[in-house]
Amino acid sequence: MRILAVCVAILSFALFSVYCSKGNSSLSQDKTYFNLHDSVRYVGMQTCMQCHSGIHSSFLQTGMGKSLAKASKSKSSASFNHLDVVNDTATGYSYLPFWQGDSLVIKEFLLKGKDTLFQRNEIVSYIIGSGQHTNSHLLLDNGYLFQAPLTFYTQEKKWDLPPGFENGANSRFNRILGLECISCHNAYPSFVEGSENKYNQIPQGIDCERCHGPGEIHVRQKQNGIIVDTSKYIDFSIVNPAKLSIDKQFDLCQRCHLQGNAVLVNGKSFFDFKPGMNLHEVIEVYLPRYSDSKEKFIMASHADRLQQSECFIKMASKKGSNNELRPYKNALTCVSCHNPHVSVKDTDPKVFIQTCKNCHQKEHVNDCSASETERSLKENDCISCHMPVSSSIDIPHVSVHDHYIRKEVLSLKTEDASRVFLGLECINNKDNTSLNLAKAYLQQFEKFDKSNKVLLDSAKSNLLKSGGLKEDSLFSHWIQLFYLENNFQKVCDLSKEFGHSRLAFFTLLSKDFSNSDAWTAYRIAESYTQTGNTKAALLYYYIAQKLAPFYFEFSNKFGSSALLNGKTELAEAAFKRLTKENPLFVAGWSNLGYLKLLKADYQSAIYYSNKALQLDYSYIPARLNRAGGLYGLNQTNDLELELQKILDIDPGNEKAKLFLENL
User: CA–CA separation, 555 vs 564, rounded Å?
Assistant: First the structure.
């Protein structure tokens, strides 16, 4: 009854607020949307469809509506034939996509001449990407989500490696798809805390509530007969983006259309942003600026590029009442051109041109340097000149309109030695703190550019502005900095200064979606391992895997550390739990094989090594373990063949050479 009373009170207050607005749509009332509260639940797109079937049907045809779905022939935009083989010359692996009944399969194989050395088939669970530019492919195994090493590029109708898999960086079937990625490319999933990529449930496609906010209160009001005349009033039970101020409209769009270095505000997760909020309340997005950044851009940079345009700057600078930015109808925003409920493919190009004409009327026609004949041949298409189709620098085989609108458009140049890094810029918060800037530089180095040591210098400078080494709130950031500098002794010294007991029982305790404390413990553990203190390392590996029990790397390192400390049974339990939880984790199987080898259980050592090699033909630790098992069983011929395979893969492998010489 108490819960019911609270709900009635909320609804009554919502109704009171709506009808007391007297038609006032002042944008200063953004914050009164009732579905911004954490307690309001999402209801799902099927519920929205019951009242908004027309919009629902149209939206399903948009890029957002088609963002992710189960792998099926109707979802796929790709072509399939026996010639669709993609060869990764850096690793030697090749890939072939094909349908096996209703299942989409990716075959990975390794050839030596005409002989097939290795073959692995994986069934695709999901296709991500609307098909307007790409279809990429995801695997789901026991709830763990991975990206497959094959993408179809629809504009060129070409299969190739996905972005980030090229030039020797092919992670094969092991690239994890974490919350940051999925929370933009899809509706919010049910994420398993203590993991990096495990999900209880994955929706299919971006849904209504990503732009309108959770719908529980809205649905309940309509069921109770509370109807608002939205031609006169704002319905505060659900966010209508058209009623938001310019900055909050942009924050809604650039939550996902501003790819970059996303720094979470302390205590926030990628679930916490809702329409009607300021994005910087949850996330600050940083982009690296270079001397050629005006000419080069990444794929999901629409919001950043548009906000650099004179069209946007001049209109957005005009203030409305209460010093708020004007509604979108008086300025240029994303929805000036794009109807989120209608696919770009189904939109008449004249709609986009008309947006230009709305401001650039006939009296301004002489502003265009093209002759009347030239304009006529292009049907007065402003966009072809001022928003040309260009290639992004992060995704191959894809072209997209550059949303930086300008009179003189420079061509996209290739990489050259004169490109100079200028620094990181926070796109959505000009009042960012030194601490958040330090976090951004640390993340930029760790995630995107480990060759640029200047990033660490900048991180250190901003950390020093934020406080010293002894401040509790900065401890994890100093640890991260020293760890990324490979200054492992400094990490160990700082952890000793804080004290093992203090860190274990009072500091490294938090479980959150980012696993921040678990990562701090892991970095300390790795540093103790590097400096030879295996006992201290075991303590911090234990903390890391306890806080994040579903992240396989932490569990694997804990098992390995336990083995180094002579705790064989503890190590075996860790490896067995790991391989049961995530059967695709190669190192787990290999380490089980090594443990069995130490126990002189040679048959089991070979069995577990084979499990690893079924996933990765070239995994040297598993091959060495297998060789050890064969040696223990005195299978000399097979042993010699195994050692030769190791040397074929890694000609300089000293262990295999020594083993072979002793034979």
Answer: 14
- Cα distance between the two ends of the chain: 80
- Contact yes or no for 72/149 (Cβ under 8 A): no
Neighbours of 284 (CB within 10 A): 23
| Cα 293 from Cα 499, distance rounded (Å) | 45
What residues are paired with 98 via a beta bridge?
105
pTM: 0.90
Q: Please, are residues 472 and 483 in contact by the beta-carbon 8 Å criterion?
A: no
Interacting residues of 266 by C-beta distance below 8 A, sequence separation 6+: none
Please, are residues 646 and 656 in contact by the beta-carbon 8 Å criterion? Answer: yes
Domain assignment present for residue 185? The answer is no
- Work out the burial of residue 371: count CB atoms within 10 Å of its CB; fewer than 13 is exposed, 13-18 middle, 19 or more buried: exposed
The domain tally of the chain equals 4
CA-wise closest residue to 585 among 144, 138, 105, 166 = 144
Same domain, 113 and 26: no
Q: Answer yes or no: is 614 within a domain.
A: yes
Q: Which domain holds residue 112?
A: 71-175
Residue type, 553: E
SS (H, E, C) 140-190: EECCEEEEEEEEEECCCCEEECCCCCCCCCCCCCCEECCHHHHHHHCCCCE
Whether the Cβ atoms of residue 281 and residue 265 lie closer than 8 Å to each other = yes
In angstroms, the CA 546 to CA 179 distance is 20
CA distance 616 to 496: 39
Q: Closest Cα to residue 495, out of 468, 464, 465, 527?
A: 527
Same domain assignment for residues 381 and 342: yes
Query: What tens digit of pLDDT does each residue of 376-431 get?
Result: 777 778 888 888 888 888 899 998 888 998 887 655 445 555 779 999 999 999 99
Residues 368 and 291 both lie in one domain? yes
Amino acid at 642: E
Query: 139 - beta bridge partners?
Result: 146
Kindly report, residue by residue over 35-66, the tens digit of the pLDDT: 999 899 999 999 999 999 999 999 999 999 99
Is 320 found in the same domain as 223? no
Distance of alpha carbon 260 from alpha carbon 254, whole angstroms: 10
The count of C-alpha atoms lying within 13 angstroms of the C-alpha of 92, restricted to the half-sphere facing its C-beta, is 13
Cα angle 636-640-642, degrees, rounded to a multiple of 5 = 115
If asked whether residues 429 and 549 sit together in one domain, one would say no
Burial pattern 421-435, b for ≥16 Cβ within 10 A else e, equals beebbbbbbeebeeb
Which CATH number covers residue 453?
1.25.40.10
CB atoms within 10 A of CB 89: 9
Are the CB atoms for 30 and 245 separated by under 8 Å?
Answer: yes
Q: What's the CA gap between 599 and 607, in Å, rounded?
A: 14
